[in-house]
Design a protein that fits this description.
This protein is an alpha/beta fold and 525 residues long. It is built from six helices and 41 strands. Helix 5 runs antiparallel to helix 6. The chain is elongated, with a radius of gyration of 38 Å.
Amino acid sequence: MNGYFQMVITPKGTGIKVFAPTEDGQPLNVNDVRDYLDDRKIQYDVVIINEAVTKADGEVVMFTEAQMLPEREGCKFDVSKDRMTVTAFFYPPTQDGELMTEEEVLGSLAYRKITYGIQTDAIHDFFEHRQYCTEIVVAQGKPVKQGKNARVELHFNSNLRAKPTLREDGSVDYFHLNLINNVEAGQLLATLHPEVPGEPGINVYGENIKPAAVKSAYIKYGKNTVLSEDKMTLTAEKSGHVTVKEGKITVSDVLTVENVDVSTGNIEYEGSVQVKGVVASNFSVKAGGNIVVKGIVEGATLDAGADIILECGAKAGGNIKAGGNVVTKFIENATITARGGITSECILHSTVSSGTEINVTGKRGFIAGGKVSAAEKIQAKILGSEMGANTIIEVGADPELKVRLKELQKNITAANKNIEGIKPTIEGFTKMLKAGAKFTPDQVANAKKLIDLNKTLTEQIQKDSDEYQELMEKLAESKEAEVIVEGTAYPGTTVNIGELSMIVKKPVQYSRFVVDKGDVRLAPI
């Protein structure tokens, strides 16, 4: 039982008796006494009250010469902020004071419009075994049972990133990175877990509380997959490589050729392509899945829906685009774009951009010349060169995001220009129409076309402006992006993080470039 107090009225004034807790009960809180006295506007000496609560010896301690009026047993109700719980805090009467009844408590709750979840057993128990200065739950609402959104569970790793393995001799293995998900025919690829609706709750005032709305989902599937009749599971129709592109699950088979040259012509294939030799200059390979080339790629074009793995490298004007990761021995005078990560031993005078991160950490591990961009992180041993090669390193936003921002700016400017061009004609037509002028059917039709065009352009500007604002907000979320130099960053290197920039003016070693206090600064690795 918790500690509690009782007011005592004597001919000499008013006193207080404080009782210590029993067994595992809590000591009396002095604030409960002070609240009681303040509510009843009874003057008291704070020091005396504090000492009485501290001693808690059950003896009468006089704290005022004034005689308070007898107080009957009292109760203070507290409703939680979420209106789901009501607690009662009972105070004992003064000696020989009148006691409350169960009906009074129930009536007080009803007066406060508390109608749901009345804990009659708890209330009855108090009147059977009075325990003062203890919170008792006297009404309890029914909590909302939130539902669950539908979700698609993938039974394969859909977020593969290129992470080179260090061999025992210290060299780096770039071509055994587990980037390809091999599956067998009949293998389970995905399971749909349908949405589970929530159940409404009821607060102590009898008001219904609606659960949050749940979202539905479905399995998006592509070629070489089979969706069950109940649309709950997806399996592979044939063996191959499973990938997810824009949410759609696809299994691609593999086309294998010796070389891509005059003997084959350009390759365009829905599945994955493996080239045992080289891709010759000016030829192209386009694949819906992965592209693996064991020989050199020189001045060729590669476009893969998933990953590109070049066991030698790319050079001399090669143009490479991957919907997933790119792994290559080297990149020289080439353009490479990947939605995923890019891993290479060196990058020389190239334009390279990644939607996630770029790792250049092989034996040479240098980035020299050109522009290298990644949304999250760039890591290399060397940036720039002793000769001061103009090298731009950029992190903090998906490079495709910046391209899209420029497109939106161009679209908005062009639309505004068109609106300004047709605005005088529309205003003139409207003015003459209000003045009572009559027009031929052709004139009305032309005016209507211009009005419709104005509406379309205005709506497009609003849509593009909204997207532009959303992308700008994403661009601002670049504070955690970083550039890591495991060796030296040479003068001539520019490091951009988001919209902030630093030009390296003297060699920097073993450092991280990060955003700190509104600027690009150096930090230890």
